[in-house]
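Supplementary Methods, section 5.1.

A reviewer requested that the exact input to the structure prediction be made available. We therefore reproduce it here, unchanged from the version used in the analyses.
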Amino acid sequence: MRMQFFKLKSVLGCLLMMLSLVGAAFGTFPGHNGLIAFQVQTDAGIQIYTVRPNGKDLRQITFLDGDAVGAAWSPDGRTIVFEHDAPGQCSNVAIMNPDGTGIVEFPAPNVCEDDPTFTRDGKRIIFHRFDPATFDEAFWSMDLNGGDRHGIGLCCADPTVSPDGTKLSYVGFNGDPTGAALFTANLNGSNIFQVTPFSFDVAVKQDWAPGGKHLVFSIYGDNPIQEFRQTS
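The structure derived from this sequence is encoded token-by-token as follows.
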């Protein structure tokens, strides 16, 4: 379970907004568009599916106990990283092939790890880590074997690497039930910049445009009624 406890990952008809950012960048993934990976609530928990952009070839690719959420593609499109929330256990990061085979999980004793994403070169995974014993939480980085782990120092949800590989966007909280803002920072945790006010209640998930000059995100993530009023 997320211990940032538990910001609602809203997927209800969200109002999308885009903000301009300074600086050139490259496309997020080179080549043509491929499969879309997304999560679906099933009778056996939340599971990951893939589908083509035209809506064809819908396929369930995870069949795990508990929830499989937060799927993110590697830059070469050959691997998916995701969060596995097994019943009664802290969440952990896992990777798999695009067809759901070859699942490898990277559990860390006595801590919760979630919200994974790849770095631009595809050689490392950025993720959120929470220690229930100390209540410490931050973004961490590890290699594709689950080793060489170290903290970045930022916090708190949905880290997403920019197309040029130099920055992270993420969601931070101010402690209010609907206080969530979008931030950016350098990949090493420096140069933190608050992009939106906390009153926007930014929802997970947000993302970079392929050109790196815009971010797309949803507001009122914890208030579906307000969200509906704003988009009606």
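Confidence is low (pLDDT under 50) at residues 1-27, 227-232. These observations are discussed further in the main text.
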